[in-house]
Amino acid sequence: MSTAPPASYDAIIIGSGQSGNPLASALTAAGHSTALIEATHIGGCCINDGCTPTKTLVASARVAYLARRAASYGITVPTVGVDMPAVRQRKRDIVSSWRSGSEGRLEKAGVKVVMGKARFTGEREIVVDLVGGGEERMVGKKVFVNVGERPVVPDLVGLSEVMEKSPDRVLDSTSVQELGVVPGKLLVLGGGYIGLEFGQLFRRLGAEVTVVQRADRLAVREDEDIAECLKGILEEDGIEVLVGSQATEIKMAGGEKLELTVKSKDGLEKKLEGTHVLLATGRRPNTDTLDLDKTSVKVNKRGYIEFNDDLTTSVEGIYVLGDVKGPPAFTHVSYDDFRILRDSLGLNPDGKIVTRTVKSRDGLVPYCMYTDPQLGHVGLHLHEVPAGTKVKVAKMPMSYVARALETDEPRGMMKAVVDAETGKIVGFTCLGIEGGELVSVVQLAMMGGLHYQQLADAVFAHPAIAECLNNLWGYLEDV
Ligand SMILES: Cc1cc2nc3c(=O)[nH]c(=O)nc-3n(C[C@H](O)[C@H](O)[C@H](O)COP(=O)(O)OP(=O)(O)OC[C@H]3O[C@@H](n4cnc5c(N)ncnc54)[C@H](O)[C@@H]3O)c2cc1C
Ligand SMILES: NC(=O)c1ccc[n+]([C@@H]2O[C@H](COP(=O)([O-])OP(=O)(O)OC[C@H]3O[C@@H](n4cnc5c(N)ncnc54)[C@H](O)[C@@H]3O)[C@@H](O)[C@H]2O)c1
């Protein structure tokens, strides 16, 4: 260990995630000496192996899908081929341009970036195991933890042997993006965001795909009707979907084949063969290597850091941001954590003091699963409406939407939940073309506290998808 005294900073940020970077720039701009420590890539999961690369791959897969359907638009496309190295290169190029953009912004802001893995040695004392070797010790008046999550490796008999013998066949959300060939048969464990986005995109790129989902339905947060509709769409795309199914064992089955044993809820066993398996059964927080036991920072039993409404923790001067707080784990939530701290720490360049908190944004955090069609949602699902609250529900198939028909993409449905007394919208889901964008329109109406009738009477451009918000309310029913 180095004997030099630790470098002293006003602020140390551990993790260059979606909140760590803007916070580092804002602190530096406000005159606070700031160090940002990053173990791997500047920009964190979102731009390196999360949102940006997946949505880039989803876009390539959608082109393949549309090209195969070209005849239904009266267009002739002789053959549809997939050049996987080119698909991957497009993804790599976009990632590298975003990453270098982030690096450039930090440099321009004058942030001191330290590449290495940080761990605590005391309450606000840190040692960094530097990427190039050696270590750097530092102490901060304030420490911000933005270390994110990583994929879970599920407990599955035979998995470690297969990973040892054939590591290229066992994929997670990061390694699957680096494939240079389309898998022959992809077995996906997990029917959440990652399993479904990758499952569908690789199906479109030409793989056979089976999704094995332990829960009784896909996308467990959704109401059952939406989850069923999504399952139907994926099955129509040629994906085998097994819900209520637990993978019990995996082994090599001769040659390059894997054999996965799956047990359904009613006890039936099924053997699935595949060339690759994608582990998409959730993510776990990167707190296990932070040596938090050297501090009094409290973590819950799943390893997430416990936090207060203003993102303080159980230790004065230590703050937490992003996925490491626990769900919901989204880029827009992590970025908003930055805004909460920017305002509470007086870093807003406009000098504005806004008391924003985690609670004040609760209830209006949207999300969008980038299947095609997209599954967007904001507010409460019907199954989350508190007992005793009287609501009405409107459901409408996307095939009633002019724009969806004109573009020949009428799959899916939308669903709105409205407070029966006030007429205000309490939740909205769109599983349909540009569902994520439509949800943003409804989110604004919810932010403004509009009565649904104001959307029913709003003049939207024809034939924008949002025009369907004139008609949806005609289907409102008591529940
Ligand atoms: C495949 C995939 C697709 C996704 N798609 C979407 C999407 O479409 N929309 C969406 O909103 N969200 C999406 N997400 C989630 C989104 O990426 C995260 O919610 C987002 O990146 C926020 O993360 P964060 O700010 O908490 O930290 P992260 O972005 O996870 O960054 C944490 C950083 O900390 C670093 N780190 C960890 N430990 C240490 C340490 N000890 N010392 C130093 N550095 C450390 C890590 O290397 C990492 O760079 C996706 C995630 C995945 C995996
Ligand atoms: N578009 C987006 O916003 C987006 C995209 C990707 C990831 N993300 C974020 O990343 C997080 C992690 O994604 P994820 O898909 O890994 O997790 P998830 O929690 O969304 O889904 C995991 C699914 O795996 C199932 N499962 C768990 N163990 C299993 C097992 N042994 N066998 C079969 N199924 C099993 C669970 O029932 C669950 O439905 C998401 O919750 C989300 O916050 C967001």
Walkthrough of the structure:
By secondary structure, the protein is of the alpha/beta class. The chain folds into 3 domains: 7-150 and 284-360, 3-Layer(bba) Sandwich (FAD/NAD(P)-binding domain), CATH 3.50.50.60; 159-281, FAD/NAD(P)-binding domain; 364-478, Enolase-like, domain 1 (2-Layer Sandwich), CATH 3.30.390.30. The chain contains 13 helices and 22 strands. The strands form 5 sheets. Strands 17-18-21-20-19-22 form a 6-stranded antiparallel β-sheet, with helices on both faces. Helix 3 packs antiparallel against helix 4. The N and C termini lie far apart (66 Å). The model has no long low-confidence stretch (mean pLDDT 96). Bound molecules: flavin-adenine dinucleotide and nicotinamide-adenine-dinucleotide (NAD). Residues 14-19, 37-41, 44-46, 50-51, 54, 117-118, 146-148, 173, 194, 286, 289-290, 322-324, 329-332, 334, 370 line the site of flavin-adenine dinucleotide (FAD).
Number of domains: 3
Total strands: 22
Low-confidence stretches: none
- Which ligands occur here? flavin-adenine dinucleotide, nicotinamide-adenine-dinucleotide
CATH architecture of the largest domain: 3-Layer(bba) Sandwich
**CATH homologous superfamily caption of the largest domain:** FAD/NAD(P)-binding domain
Biggest sheet overview: 6 strands, antiparallel
Q: State the distance separating the first and last CA atoms.
A: 66 Å
Structural class: alpha/beta
Tell me what portion of residues adopts beta-strand conformation. 25-35%
**In which range does the helix fraction lie?**
25-40%
Strand order of the largest sheet: 17-18-21-20-19-22
CATH third-level topology of the largest domain: FAD/NAD(P)-binding domain
* Count of helical stretches: 13
Tell me the name of the CATH class of the largest domain.
Answer: Alpha Beta
Shape: globular
Radius of gyration: 24 Å
The average pLDDT value, as a whole number, equals 96
